[in-house]
Structures are given as structure tokens and as C-alpha cells.
Amino acid sequence: MGRKEDEKIAPCCEFMHVHEHMVEKVMEVMPAGEELQNLAEFFRVFGDSTRIRILYALSQSELCVCDIASLLGMGQSAISHQLRILKQMRLVKFRREGKSVLYSLADSHIETILAQGMEHIGE
């Protein structure tokens, strides 16, 4: 194969040989299909740059929809839509303070995921 063709596929073994003991070891701890599907859905939420920008902003400070819309240069309805998705996935929470609704990250796990992602892309 030529060099360009090599870049189109992942490298494979030169012959077929299943390492049964390794496969069995992994199968013992492999989560159920539904759990992995839920994990895929969780990470799919991180696949949208607007949602990532919102999460990053909320990792810095508690903000209302107006604040986030101003920060990202977007309309409040677009931000509200994304926050609804983030809330459904339990990535953000909100609280009322007078006439304001303030959003923040749901827990420290979300901040850790963002920080590790940033660290990974910076390597």
C-alpha cells in the first residue's frame, strides 16, 4: 500500500490471533450496552462548541442567561435552548435570586472533564 492509503486506516496485526485471556479480562469489567449508550449520549453533549463555551463560562462564574448571551454574542433564546439540554443531561443547575435565574455547573466533575479536555488538547 502507498503512504496515503496507510493514513486512511488504522494499523492492524499482520495475522489474525485473538488474545483470549485479554478479551476475557476486559469482558468481565465491560459495562452493559445501555450504560455505554448513556455514556455516549453524555459525551455527545460535549460535541457542540456552543455548549462547550457555555460550560467553560460557567466554570468561571455563576451566570444568568443574559450574561451568557452577552458573553457569547448570541440571542437569549439560543442560550436558553442550550441550557435546557445541559440541564437535562445534569451538567448545569440553576437557582433563583430575586428576579434573576443564575446557572452554574452541576458539580465538580464537569469542571474536571473540561480541565482534562483542555489539558489533553494542549499536549
Mind sketching the topology for me?
Layout: H1 3-8, H2 20-29, H3 33-45, H4 49-60, E1 63-64, H5 65-72, H6 76-88, E2 92-97, E3 100-105, H7 108-121
Antiparallel strand pairs: 1-3, 2-3
Primary descriptors:
7 helices; mainly alpha; elongated; Arc Repressor Mutant, subunit A; 3-stranded antiparallel sheet; 11% strand; 123 residues; 3 strands
CATH topology of the domain at 49-123: Arc Repressor Mutant, subunit A
Helix fraction by DSSP (H/I, runs of at least 4) = 55-70%
- CATH architecture of the domain at 49-123, by name, is Orthogonal Bundle
Largest sheet: 3 strands, antiparallel
CATH C-level category of the domain at 49-123: Mainly Alpha
- N- and C-termini, Cα separation: 31 Å
Our Rg estimate from Cα atoms comes to: 21 Å
| Unreliable runs | none
Count, helices: 7
- Lateral arrangement of strands in the main beta sheet: 1-3-2
Shape: elongated
What structural category do the secondary elements indicate?
mainly alpha
Order of helices and strands: HHHHEHHEEH
Residue-averaged pLDDT, rounded? 91
Q: Beta fraction of the residues?
A: 5-15%
